[in-house]
Amino acid sequence: MCIRDRYQRRVHGKMADAFTMQHFNAGDVVIREGDQGNSFYIIEEGFAEARKRNKQGKEEVVLEYKEGDYFGELALLRNEPRAATIAAKTPLNVFVLDRDAFARILGPLDELLRRNAEKYKKFL
User: Order of strands, edge to edge, in the sheet holding 92-98?
Assistant: First the structure.
């Protein structure tokens, strides 16, 4: 096995060890707008939606998520409360990184994640 392959296996193993898996049923709230954010989520299977309260206090769907999409990074990047409520539309399996693992593993991607966060601007 070449050095690159050994390195990739070691890195992938460390990353896999940092993630936990959580399951949510359809309708379950994964994160709630205004709560403290301590985790980052990647959808392994299922669908979710982001909801924000409008001026009348009614929740509106502002984004939908599918397999491979991620959420929860804004609260971690900005050290702010959750910007939206995320709820499962279907049975939902997500990979979860806590705040420390997020910083350790995805820290080098900080600038990319911040740029990608621009897609949320019209909802915040």
Answer: 20-24, 92-98, 39-45, 70-71
